[in-house]
């Protein structure tokens, strides 16, 4: 079977085309709506307005510049839209496992069915930690989905299901998250669309004025002569409230070095903006810095993960009476050395039957004291506890031991680890 590439097994909600060369958000179909909203008005403008303005200037060929500028403006907007929506916005690769350097183990006391206290190791994992940014402490959160601590200004997009660096927002009109690697192109796309709207609106109004002068009529007659100009003026006026307002808002965000996410979430908190470096430096950071390369190689072949240890042994510190453990442990070791006996032990339903089976087969070590049944199986400090990723084996409060079939199939490995551990403890 041929190895798969990263984009083929990607856990996010993104869509890939051209063999992983282009990445889009899950709502990439909205791009077709955006394209129609841009291309259709420009076609109407070129066909019904710019074409009639070619001969309205003293120089015959200068009128063609109106048509050429409209086409170039449109191409520029479409290219910026493509760069915004089809590139990695700054996705942080997921971890396959939680960061083990952050693990903290602690022992908590729990009571079993017989009321005896037993210590069980539990995992302590901090959900936040502090990092230093410009001399100030900033808390970063742990992402359970990506199993990593998010860098400052990073957030997890619920639509794309990815953690994105310098997350600004998820834009449905471009079908992509806006983050560190495409924010510059997003702002240029919005601002270019604003200028295109102003251009089309202005020339449509100019054509109405030309009609009024040519036909020596009123505005109403000119509008009846070119209804397409009226429609374009109304469309551009409405569009300017959106793209123009968005341009002004992002100019403010760039000048103060904020993201849309930070502005909406922390605006009422009165927090100090540790990223603000002054208006000029903030603009230089967005427009004059090199775009960082992507952290992901979507066309790379998936590398098989190195096998992790099948099981790890967790034991609590031995108490003083455990140091002379030659009284009962050899008996348990002999039982665990034989695969068939392990199967029989797993089928026992109470400790008394287990003790009878042990006595009936004879022992090389001292006899077991029946008054202490928990010393064989129920006590964590008498026998090592096996922790497996599969988590199919469990102790029941009734004292029975249930083992899944896949665990029994690997019983040789488990038994060998138990044997080695027990020998080391005896030494």
From TrEMBL:
Membrane spanning stretches: 31-50, 62-84, 185-208, 228-255
Chief place of localization: membrane
EC number: 2.3.1.225
Keywords: Acyltransferase, Lipoprotein, Membrane, Palmitate, Transferase, Transmembrane, Transmembrane helix
Record has Signal as a keyword: no
Region (Disordered): 309-333, 357-399
Gene Ontology biological-process entries: protein targeting to membrane
Pfam families attached to this UniProt entry: DHHC
Residue intervals of the Palmitoyltransferase DHHC domain: 141-265
GO cellular component: endoplasmic reticulum; Golgi apparatus
Keyword Lipoprotein: yes
Topological category with respect to the lipid bilayer: Multi-pass membrane protein
GO molecular function ontology, one term from the record: protein-cysteine S-palmitoyltransferase activity
Notes concerning its domains: The DHHC domain is required for palmitoyltransferase activity.
Family membership: Belongs to the DHHC palmitoyltransferase family.
The protein's name in its UniProt record: S-acyltransferase
Lineage: Eukaryota, Viridiplantae, Streptophyta, Embryophyta, Tracheophyta
Gene: LOC113872746
């Amino acid at each position: 079977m041929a190895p798969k590439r990263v984009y083929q097994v990607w856990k996010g909600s993104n869509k890939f085309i051209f063999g992983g060369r282009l990445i889009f958000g899950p709502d990439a179909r909205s791009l077709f709506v955006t394209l129609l909203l841009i291309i259709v008005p420009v076609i109407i403008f070129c066909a019904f307005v710019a074409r009639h303005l070619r001969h309205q200037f003293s120089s015959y060929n200068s009128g063609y510049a109106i048509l050429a500028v409209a086409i170039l403006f449109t191409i520029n907007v479409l290219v910026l839209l493509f760069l915004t929506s089809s590139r990695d916005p700054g996705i942080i690769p997921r971890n396959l496992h939680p960061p083990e350097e952050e693990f903290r183990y602690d022992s908590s006391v729990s009571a079993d069915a017989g009321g005896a206290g037993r210590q069980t190791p539990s995992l302590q994992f901090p959900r936040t930690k502090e990092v230093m940014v410009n001399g100030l402490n900033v808390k970063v959160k742990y992402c359970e989905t990506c199993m990593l601590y998010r860098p400052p200004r990073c957030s997890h997009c619920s639509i794309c299901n990815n953690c994105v660096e310098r997350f600004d927002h998820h834009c449905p009109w471009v079908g992509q998250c806006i983050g560190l690697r495409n924010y510059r192109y997003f702002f240029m796309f919005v601002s270019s669309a604003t200028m295109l709207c102003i251009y089309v609106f202005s020339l449509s109004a100019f054509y109405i004025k030309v009609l009024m002068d040519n036909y020596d009529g009123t505005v109403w007659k000119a509008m009846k002569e070119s209804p397409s100009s009226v429609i374009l003026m109304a469309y551009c006026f409405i569009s300017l409230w959106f793209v123009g307002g968005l341009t002004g808002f992002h100019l403010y965000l760039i000048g103060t070095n904020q993201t849309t996410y930070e502005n909406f979430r922390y605006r009422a908190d009165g927090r100090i903006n540790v990223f603000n470096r002054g208006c000029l430096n903030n603009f230089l950071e967005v427009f004059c810095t090199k775009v960082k390369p992507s952290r992901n190689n979507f066309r790379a072949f998936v590398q098989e993960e190195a096998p992790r240890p099948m099981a790890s042994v967790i034991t609590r510190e031995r108490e003083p009476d455990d140091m002379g453990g030659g009284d009962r442990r050899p008996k348990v070791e002999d039982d665990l050395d034989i695969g068939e006996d392990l199967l029989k032990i797993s089928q026992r339903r109470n400790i008394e039957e287990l003790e009878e089976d042990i006595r009936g087969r004879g022992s090389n070590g001292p006899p077991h004291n029946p008054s202490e049944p928990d010393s064989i199986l129920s006590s964590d400090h008498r026998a090592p506890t096996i922790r497996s990723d599969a988590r199919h084996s469990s102790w029941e409060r009734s004292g029975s031991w249930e083992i899944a079939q896949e665990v029994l199939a690997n019983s040789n490995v488990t038994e060998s680890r138990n044997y080695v551990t027990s020998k080391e403890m005896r030494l």
